């Protein structure tokens, strides 16, 4: 009976955005709104001797200057309930010690943003600078400690430890040892962070409009930091200009702005500038993998050991903690390959840099890169075709559901089919001929593949294994039909570009037999929605959409009962479609759904008891998680003169189960691939030896434009998931996960005859030239 | 003492006279003094192009122009593209081609594209469209939908 799920429905969100009527936090400043500017540490490591705000308070337009002490020294401490984890206290405004350049120490409240900046410059802080820890090597050496008594190791997890491994490595036909690294990068939403808070006397609560992916977590963080009940905080995420993980943790600035609004009883707004965003928000993906892998003569992997170290920056972010990257990496490294023996240690080291948070992909771009490079290396050493070696190792049709050495159960996927189809498509499209043509032109050219799956929709059955004190996972939807037959759906997920207003409406419309235009989604408001976990980790369609689907099904059941009563037929004979409740086999007997809704609300006495009093339902979904998969291929050229590297062609064969809206799926894939190419070739957060950020503007941090990103061709396979309500699988991150490995393999293919081999990202022109 | 000036400018055909500080950017004048919040600010240093508006018909980065420099000028912003509630051909094409996701970069891309298309008399190839659109940044779409939308409108208008 599906009509809307799967259809290329244009997005409901588009109209207001195209008209310039989107409503982002920065658009909300009114004439009575005060503007905040943060005073930030210019040093990567320093003790604060004193903070003198008197001159700043005299600056024209400045109303107040607040330090941590003024606010009662609020802090957040995110906790993993494991012995191997060391919690750190993150002050919202540091009062005694700063641990990275950009850390906030005071906030200036002024009449406008210009005066706030003037005020921030006038705050006098006496610093005593200390030694810095700027890379994983220095952190491991621990001659200097970022947090005293920790030896910089904030988490150290041995996840698996097969005792047979050393024997396997000793005896194998081929044992490879290699190191893989990926640079620190920024999610870099084009809208930076922004928060506006105001006190509401009527409800005795602070209303915090903030550019977040996780409104409820933000509410919990603010309430915990300020020591107030959650009811005292209402978080609203209006239109949000991208997140990519950067907005899925609670920002210190969000807490401070809420506290300032409560104290001043005036609306206060803070809009981050790009320099703050690049230096003082959160980063991700700075990791190193020291790997040993054994293969037999046919290229079958026999064993895998990885020592994974992550540079997690100065603090554990709230509520995910700094373990999010090492845990993900150590748990999921084997990926789609059947690894019989495995050992993994994942460690997170503190450094004097901004904290890291889950950036799109979360360790999976790196683990896919590791596995795909290992396959290529083994293939080359053993003389096996690099595509064939993947086929020999991947989980094959007939082997699903497959439980790996890492105790993960992979639901049905199309690993082999996607690889086969990719190979076929690029051959048909003449990529190999094109590669030869480029080579004849004097360019270096190569083709690279990457095969991977992406665990999505982590519900509490999976998330609880991490042992976070705040364990995300489930989500709850409420579906309510009004007397005119239109529907409001609420969800705890919080879309910010993914088109949820459209896709949720498609799901609900199918259940209720109405048009998606009759369905409105309410999200991103903690007072309007049940506790939920927001939008990250490719969870929303499976978990939020799954809950909405269940709740809508429940309302549909009520509608069928009402129709059965009014039409005097059996409930099972009623069908909801095209806005009407019809009777199977009796074309003439039907009622508009709006009429059913009218009767339920306005003449409820006409109905039997069980059909009365409204049409609404609340349901939750909490799946174990599901794996979407894809194969990426890219054709890359390298200019031997300039070192310039270009991704010229890109192909994705992806399988995210049941597709709700192909327009939206393709958009997620393309945007993700662009970020993956960015991580492979362009983007890198850098510091000098003293810990000063040297990539603090978009002149230094290179975000690819339309000329660096090539067209991305997409083909779909559809293997429904048995673990999700509607057969769909999450797919928000796959593009970013698969692309770096494909690009890196292509570069190595291009350079193979020169004996150069790269196992790091990004690969820059200077790497090629040296 | 604030350094203030009286300026007059027309935005989407509406005349405005306001007093601004000399250091106030055109982006802030439009957004906060005049309420045209459709123009977005993504970097404040001239790279992202989210703040692109047309100043006397030419695309400019309104974060790099001071309000006082717009004195006596005609400004066109994203709010001026539609005909009342009816989306323009370009706006429709953006939706049809999925040229926007979060929508934050969209006003800048629309204004850039509008200025570019108004100067064309032949249908540009994809490489040229990409060159032009490379002036702005989008983090969500991978650009393909934006490129396709601009190409389609070029074909429709020039066709
Ligand atoms: S805000 Fe003007 S170019 Fe980025
Ligand atoms: S649509 Fe989000 S930045 Fe372009």
TrEMBL record, chain A:
It holds the Pfam family MoCoBD_1. Keywords: Molybdenum, Oxidoreductase. InterPro entries: Ald_Oxase/Xan_DH_a/b, Ald_Oxase/Xan_DH_a/b_sf, Ald_Oxase/xanthine_DH-like, AldOxase/xan_DH_MoCoBD1, AldOxase/xan_DH_MoCoBD2, AldOxase/xan_DH_Mopterin-bd_sf. Its cofactor is Mo-molybdopterin cytosine dinucleotide. The keyword DNA-binding does not apply. One of its GO terms (molecular function) is iron ion binding. Gene3D superfamilies: Aldehyde oxidase/xanthine dehydrogenase, a/b hammerhead, Aldehyde oxidase/xanthine dehydrogenase, molybdopterin binding domain. This is Xanthine dehydrogenase. It comes from Kibdelosporangium phytohabitans.
UniProtKB/TrEMBL annotation, chain B:
PROSITE patterns: 2FE2S_FER_1, 2FE2S_FER_2. This is (2Fe-2S)-binding protein. InterPro entries: 2Fe-2S-bd (IPR002888), 2Fe-2S-bd_dom_sf (IPR036884), 2Fe-2S_ferredoxin-like_sf (IPR036010), 2Fe-2S_ferredoxin-type (IPR001041), 2Fe2S_fd_BS (IPR006058), Beta-grasp_dom_sf (IPR012675), Diverse_Oxidoreductases (IPR051452). Residues 5-81 form the 2Fe-2S ferredoxin-type domain. Keywords: 2Fe-2S, Iron, Iron-sulfur, Metal-binding, Oxidoreductase. Gene3D superfamilies: 3.10.20.30, [2Fe-2S]-binding domain. One of its GO terms (molecular function) is oxidoreductase activity. Pathway: Alkaloid degradation; nicotine degradation.
């Amino acid at each position: 009976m599906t009509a809307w799920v799967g259809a290329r429905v244009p997005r409901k969100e588009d109209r207001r955005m195209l008209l310039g009527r989107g409503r982002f936090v920065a658009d909300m400043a009114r004439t009575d709104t005060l503007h905040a500017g943060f005073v930030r540490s210019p040093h990567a490591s320093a003790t604060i001797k004193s903070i003198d705000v008197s001159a700043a308070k005299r600056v024209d337009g400045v109303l107040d200057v607040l330090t941590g002490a003024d606010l009662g020294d609020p802090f957040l401490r995110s906790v993993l309930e494991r012995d191997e984890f060391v919690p750190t206290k993150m002050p919202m405004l540091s009062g005694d010690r700063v641990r990275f350049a950009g850390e906030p120490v005071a906030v200036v409240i002024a009449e406008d943003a210009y005066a706030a900046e003037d005020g921030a410059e006038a705050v006098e802080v006496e610093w005593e600078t200390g030694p810095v820890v700027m890379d994983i090597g220095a952190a491991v050496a621990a001659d200097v400690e970022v947090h005293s008594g920790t030896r910089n190791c904030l988490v150290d997890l041995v996840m698996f430890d097969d005792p047979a491994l050393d024997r396997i490595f000793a005896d194998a036909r081929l044992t490879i040892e290699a190191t893989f690294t990926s640079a620190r990068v920024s999610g870099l939403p084009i809208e930076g962070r922004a928060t506006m808070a105001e006190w509401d006397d009527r409800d005795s609560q602070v209303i915090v409009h903030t550019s977040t992916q996780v409104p409820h977590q933000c509410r919990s963080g603010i309430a915990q930091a300020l020591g107030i009940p959650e009811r005292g905080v209402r978080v609203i995420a209006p239109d949000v200009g991208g997140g990519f993980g950067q907005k899925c943790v609670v920002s210190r600035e969000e807490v401070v702005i809420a506290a300032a609004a409560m104290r001043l009883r005036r609306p206060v707004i803070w809009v981050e500038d790009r320099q703050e965003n690049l230096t003082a928000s959160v980063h991700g993906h700075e990791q190193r993998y020291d790997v040993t892998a054994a293969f037999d003569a046919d290229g079958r992997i026999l064993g895998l050991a990885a020592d994974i170290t992550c540079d997690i920056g100065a603090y554990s972010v709230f509520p995910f903690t700094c373990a999010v990257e090492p845990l993900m990496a150590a748990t999921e490294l084997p990926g789609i390959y059947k690894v019989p023996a495995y050992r993994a240690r994942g460690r997170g080291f503190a450094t004097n840099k901004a904290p890291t948070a889950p950036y799109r992909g979360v360790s999976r771009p790196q683990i896919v890169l590791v596995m795909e490079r290992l396959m290529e290396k083994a293939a080359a050493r053993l003389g096996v075709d690099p595509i064939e070696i993947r086929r020999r190792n991947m989980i094959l049709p007939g082997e699903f559901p497959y439980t790996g050495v890492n105790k993960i159960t992979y639901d049905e996927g199309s690993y082999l089919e996607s690889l086969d189809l990719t190979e076929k498509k690029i051959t048909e499209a003449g990529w190999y001929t094109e590669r030869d043509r480029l080579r004849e032109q004097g360019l270096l050219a190569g083709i690279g593949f990457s095969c991977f799956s992406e665990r999505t929709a982590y519900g509490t059955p999976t998330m609880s294994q991490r042992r976070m004190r705040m364990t995300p996972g489930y989500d709850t939807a409420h579906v309510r039909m009004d007397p005119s037959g239109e529907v409001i759906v609420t969800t705890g997920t919080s879309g910010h570009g993914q088109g949820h207003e459209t896709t949720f409406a498609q799901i609900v419309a199918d259940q209720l037999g109405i048009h998606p235009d009759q369905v409105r989604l309410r999200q991103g408001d903690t007072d309007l929605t049940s506790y939920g976990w927001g939008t990250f980790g490719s969870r929303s369609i499976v978990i939020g959409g799954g809950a909405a689907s269940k709740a809508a099904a429940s309302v549909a059941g009520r509608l069928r009962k009402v129709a059965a009563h009014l039409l005097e037929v059996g409930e099972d004979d009623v069908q909801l479609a095209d806005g009407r409740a019809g009777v199977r086999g009796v074309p003439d007997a039907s009622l508009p759904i709006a009429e059913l809704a009218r009767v339920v609300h306005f003449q409820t006495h006409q109905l039997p008891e069980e059909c009365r009093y409204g049409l609404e339902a609340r349901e939750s979904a909490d799946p174990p998680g599901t794996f979407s998969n894809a194969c990426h291929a890219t054709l890359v050229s390298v200019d031997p003169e300039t070192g310039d590297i270009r991704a010229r062609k890109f192909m994705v064969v992806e399988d995210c189960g049941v597709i709700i809206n192909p327009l939206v799926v393709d958009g997620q894939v393309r945007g993700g691939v662009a970020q993956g190419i960015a991580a492979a070739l362009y983007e890198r957060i850098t510091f000098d030896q003293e810990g000063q950020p040297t990539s603090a503007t978009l002149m230094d941090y290179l975000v690819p434009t339309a000329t660096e990103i090539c067209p991305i061709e997409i083909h779909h396979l559809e293997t429904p998931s048995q673990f999700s309500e509607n057969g769909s699988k999450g797919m928000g991150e796959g593009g970013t996960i698969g692309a770096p490995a494909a690009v890196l393999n292509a570069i190595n293919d291009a350079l193979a005859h020169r004996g150069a081999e790269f196992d790091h990202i990004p690969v820059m022109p200077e790497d090629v030239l040296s | 003492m604030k350094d203030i000036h009286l300026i007059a400018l027309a935005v989407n055909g509406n005349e405005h006279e306001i007093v601004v500080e000399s250091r106030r950017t055109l982006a802030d004048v439009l957004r906060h003094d005049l309420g045209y919040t459709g123009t977005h600010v993504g970097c404040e240093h001239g790279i992202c192009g989210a703040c692109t508006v047309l100043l006397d018909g030419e695309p400019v980065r309104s974060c790099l122009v001071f309000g006082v420099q717009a004195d006596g000028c005609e400004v066109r912003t994203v709010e001026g593209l539609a005909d009342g509630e009816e989306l323009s051909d370009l706006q429709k094409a953006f939706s049809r081609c999925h040229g926007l996701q979060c929508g934050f970069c969209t006003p800048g891309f629309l204004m850039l594209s509008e200025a570019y298309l108004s100067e064309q008399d032949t249908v540009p190839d994809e490489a040229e469209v990409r060159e032009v659109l490379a002036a702005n940044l989008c983090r969500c779409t991978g650009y393909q939908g934006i490129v396709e939308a601009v190409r389609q409108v070029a074909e429709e208008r020039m066709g």
